[in-house]
Amino acid sequence: MTTPRPAVPPMPARERLYLYDTTLRDGAQTNGVDFTLADKRKVMRLLDGLGVDYVEAGYPGANPTDTQLFAEAHGIRARVTAFGMTKRPGRSASNDPGIAALVNATSDGICFVAKSSAYQVRVALECSKEENLASIRESVGAAVAAGREALVDCEHFFDGYKEDPAFALDCARTAYEAGARWVVLCDTNGGTLPHEVEAIVGEVVKVVPGAHVGIHAHNDTEQAVANSLAAVRAGARQVQGTLNGLGERCGNANLTSIIPTLLLKRDFSERFDIGVTKDGLAELAHVSHTLDEMLNRAPDRHAPYVGESAFATKAGIHASAILKDPATYEHVPPEAVGNRRKLLVSDQAGKSNVLAELERLGVEVDKADPRLSHLLNDVKAREALGYSYEAADASFALLARRALGTVPDFFDVERFSVNVERRYNAKGDLTTVAEAIVKVHVAEETFISAAEGNGPVNALDVALRKDLGKYQPFIEGLRLVDYRVRVLNGGTEAVTRVLIESADETGERWTTVGVSPNIIDASFEALVDSITWKLLKEGAPA
Fold first, then answer.
1. 112: part of which helix (H) or strand (E)?
2. Cα distances (Å, whole numbers) of residue 289 to 373, 398, 509
3. Closest by Cα among 26, 21, 27 to 294
4. E strands, 5-78, where?
5. Average pLDDT over residues 181-209
6. Contact 313, 325 (CB under 8 A)
7. How far apart are CA 195 and CA 122, in angstroms?
8. If pLDDT is split at 50, 70 and 90, which confidence band does 344 have?
9. How far apart are CA 140 and CA 58, in angstroms?
10. Angle at alpha carbon of residue 371, lines to 369 and 377, rounded to 5°
11. Residue 347, pLDDT score
12. Which of 222-236, 331-345, 442-456 has the lowest mean pLDDT?
């Protein structure tokens, strides 16, 4: 007789987590960030392609850009949400112009911000608790009656809960019972810690089902991502945040950290599904960098997952281990998030770093080639002079190729001069003008170019790229996107290191370095390397 096998217990059902992006609303409150209408449309498409569930696109009626955006169709899969306030105390929802603007906006959902702190109600709104609850109830009712998905952002929820738990819970319960699809708990001041979030959310889901609870965390103690994950552990099923952690003060929960954590860390990936697929995740670094480029911000090199240094290794012993098995020093594969591994070349590097970087750059060389040792010694000697190749991949590639004899002499700069003059213009205004002249030899031809610029480096850059003869078509799309200067040893006669980040028409970026006691000379060295690298990667003929 065959003994029946014990029944295999069914796998627990995976729960759905919903991602809500507020880059275009809360993120727009970042100091120095100002989205145009075209910017907002582009970001909405990026977010939709990534796979987020909700895009909070702005505040209709608050400014002309948002008003125009919510007057048009959006054409994306993600649910577009309009943000605004609950009705004012003392008037009906039908007689509130703010409610009217939200109801008349082209959106799938409406997110109402509502006070959920007794202190805030008393001080900011100057109304009773009952009036505040009525504002929540009637505002949600207006959205539901208009056929919109209603969300309530319970502002100051965690601080309010600590002060008066019953009232904070009343606000959440009122929103849910009025028909809100999501009751979002906001750590508005950003001071709540993860263990507090987990405990408080655990109490909320006893009143409002977790499938209707969201978390909106601010980053004032660098805990926004941790707080968001703590809320998920406690039962919340919607996570709000922004790309690159944009937001007022210290920013919001960073979706570029939350999304890969949910997809790649087993504690979450085995329990939950999200709208972002693995293919979408592979676009994360591109989406992050595209947003920074739009806003003219230098990307955070040390950002988790998507930063240029997120998978960078400097020490030679670590590089050797990574070449054997990347998991020795990487918590996830960089390709999963659209990033790449970097083994930095520096004075701490060994031959493993150099070999790995040359392989990445497509430079074939035998590991027994004696020129490798000479190259490594050269790198260390030059770094002693102030060069830094760990942050200047293109300059290192050129140094290595020159050591291997594979860089053509595209052009030769015979001389350059720069003049900076402060003078009165034709209108009688005092102005400063920079002028540069560059004499360049290309094959058998000589070119002399002059240009004016915003400063001496800009003038030099324009003059150098003004006419390179037969190479001009190869550099038309070249542009400078970042310029960084570091004084290495103090004083007015100090040695200066200049790093220039360049980009081309495809969006590819590279960095070059120059070092000199003269900042103009250091800048020019980095400019020449940038142009040379562009010509080399384009396969320009010698």
1. strand 109-115
2. 36, 25, 11
3. 27
4. 15-16, 18-21, 54-58
5. 98
6. no
7. 28
8. low
9. 18
10. 130
11. 44
12. 331-345
Helix (H) or strand (E) holding 104: helix 97-104
- Residue 405 pLDDT grade (very low, low, confident, very high; cuts 50, 70, 90): confident
**Per-residue confidence (pLDDT) for residue 9, from 0 to 100:** 57
Q: What local confidence, expressed as pLDDT, does residue 341 receive? A: 73
What number of helices (H) and strands (E) belong to the chain?
A: 19, 18
Q: What secondary structure does DSSP assign to 404-465, as a single string?
A: TT------EEEEEEEEEEEEE-TTS-EEEEEEEEEEEEETTEEEEEEEEESSHHHHHHHHHT
Q: Is there a contact between 139 and 94 (Cβ–Cβ < 8 Å)?
A: no
Give the alpha-carbon dihedral of 509, 510, 516, 520, to 10 degrees.
Answer: -30
260 pLDDT higher than 70: yes
pLDDT at 348 over 50: no
Q: Which residues pair with 483 in a beta bridge?
A: 500
- CA–CA separation, 372 vs 368, rounded Å? 8
**Quick one: pLDDT at residue 297?**
82
User: How many CB atoms lie under 10 A from the CB of residue 363?
Assistant: 16
CA distance linking residue 322 with residue 329, whole number of Å: 6
Using alpha carbons, select from 397, 379, 398 the residue that is nearest to residue 387. Answer: 379
Predicted local distance difference test score (pLDDT) of residue 56: 98
Cα-Cα-Cα-Cα torsion 282, 285, 287, 293, nearest 10 degrees, comes to -160
Amino acid at 514: G
Q: Which residue shows structure tokens 């540069």?
A: 436
Is residue 397 within 8 A of residue 533, CB to CB? The reply is yes
User: Which whole-number Å values give the CA distances from 321 to 325, 327, 353, 368, in the listed order?
Assistant: 6, 9, 11, 19
Q: What's the whole-number average pLDDT of the chain?
A: 90
Indicate the burial class of 314 (C-beta count within 10 angstroms; 0-12, 13-18, 19 or more).
middle
Cα–Cα–Cα angle for 273, 279, 285, rounded to 5 degrees: 105
Q: Which of 2-16, 54-68, 260-274 has the lowest mean pLDDT?
A: 2-16
**Would you state the pLDDT for residue 459?**
93
Q: CA geometry: angle at 167 spanning 164 and 171, to 5°?
A: 140
Torsions phi, psi for 512 (to 5 deg): -125, 160
CB 346 within 8 A of CB 389: yes
> Residue 323 — φ and ψ, nearest 5°?
-65, -30
